[in-house]
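ok trying again, last paste got cut off:
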Amino acid sequence: MFIQELLLDTPEVKITLAESVPFDPPIRVHGQVALEKGSDAVWFTFPGMWHDVGRFHRADGTFTGLYANILTPPRFLPDGVWETTDLFLDIWIDPGGSLSVLDEDQLEEAEAKGWVSDSRARRARREARWIEEEHRAGRWPPRIVGEWTLEKARQSSSSNVQAAQSRPMSR
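nice, full thing came through this time. structure:
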């Protein structure tokens, strides 16, 4: 379970900010730190889609890449609770734009152990292939993922808005 601040809520996308994530040891992709203790991540959830996207950063704010979880389309419940099931496959796009499909072995294991049905596993693989094709064609990730940088997310955060409102103003 992750608790994140909702920054934008439209029918097309929900943007959240995960601040100061507790990942220790850090999450590494191809040997490089992608997310570490104290890092922030901006998440993009697209209602009805079989993936979400995170803009990952190091604790110092350095952008490390885009991470897409292949998952079941989220269900939005009362009181701001969302439910989804991670389908093990992930997509990584490094800052240079190179795409990798991650954790295929984890999906195979989950399928073999019956944790993921054959049909869900097929759907996860289809989603990963679709993202690869769309990325190759220059149509993925969605434009909003590039527009909502960590700086923009921080500026939109209610904690920053409240801090700005409580600061004494000089004339």
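cool. The CA atoms of residues 81 and 157 lie 19 Å apart. The longest strand covers residues 63-71.
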